[in-house]
Structure prediction request, 380 residues.
Amino acid sequence: MSAEPVRVPFIDLTAQRLPLAQEIDEALARVMRSNSYILGEEVALFEQEFAAYCDVAHAVGVDSGTSALELILRAYDIGPGDEVITAANTFVATTFAISYTGARPVLVDVDPYTYTLDIIQLQEAITPRTRAIMPVHLFGQPADMEPILTLAHQHNLIVIEDACQAHGARYKGRRAGSMGHAAAFSFYPAKNLGAFGDGGMVVTNDATIAEAVSKLRNYGQSEKYHHDLLGYNRRLDTLQAAVLRIKLKHLDEWNAARSAHARLYQQLLGGNGIRLPVEANYSEAVWHLYVIRTTARDELQAYLKERHIGTGIHYPVPVHLQPAHRDLGYSVGDFPVTEHSAGELLSLPMYAELTPALVAYVADTIKAFLADHVRLHAVG
Ligand SMILES: *Cc1c(COP(=O)(O)O)cnc(C)c1O
Prediction:
């Protein structure tokens, strides 16, 4: 009888949930017994706890990371005629949130090592219409915030951190989300802090902005049935808040485990001709994704899939080449780093519950592929 083959999923939500299952069941039962399903105590407490975690004064729970970004922009009254500069290499929610407000997303290419905003190109993209810069802390690594904040200060711009992949990351000791005017987090299930559905959070040190977002997420109400503005229904779900309060207590330990896995990948894969992710000297990344780079990406992905190793591609089509953004008028060749990397990036299994043995299995399988591949190409 042959043993079951080793399987390494890209992410394992069961492994995260099982140890917490009883505590979560009890919390969900508590909410249901209270019949308090909209905002209420669980959301208020989670907001306080998440604000403290991020070293900020205010947190406002919303229904997704996308809503968090959009409502921040609306709170700053950014809309038609305004430009918001962000990274070409990001998830489409970043640019969609800008477009929803009527403002124009102005893209700049990313640094080829960190895949975050290229500072020189950012500077060149600033026009009299620019209202805000939206750096994306991609893959769990903060953008280079100091020069961004300096430029923003010089040009009187708002800085909105897209921290949807960076819960707990640090930049020169400062928490992701605590450096700009405001920041957006997502609790999509696969994020470092994930709910049992959609969820998001706005964090800020600005009480006026926190107040504005609180109204925008809840029909523009400051008081029930008194609507000061045309707000939305974008509240963080109370059951999700109850789940997230439990998970937040484990976030630092989960992020530390991710870092350990990243170090092991780095150690085992180094010197094999594939490009490994670079952790900038300013950053303590939280490794939302562990993204390698190789010209043989598609072959490697297929090879790993045959051997039951899950991977992902973040992102196969850059935002400026998406049909949905055709109106922006960008074309192939506009952002070479982003376009080139789209064909070469591969995200390896990464989640806290991975084990050193599984990381080693993934690394060994990649090395076997590389050896085969080199041999094949030497002969061919
Ligand atoms: C996940 C994500 C978002 C959007 O979050 P949702 O909760 O899915 O709406 C925005 N920006 C980035 C970079 C993300 O990874």
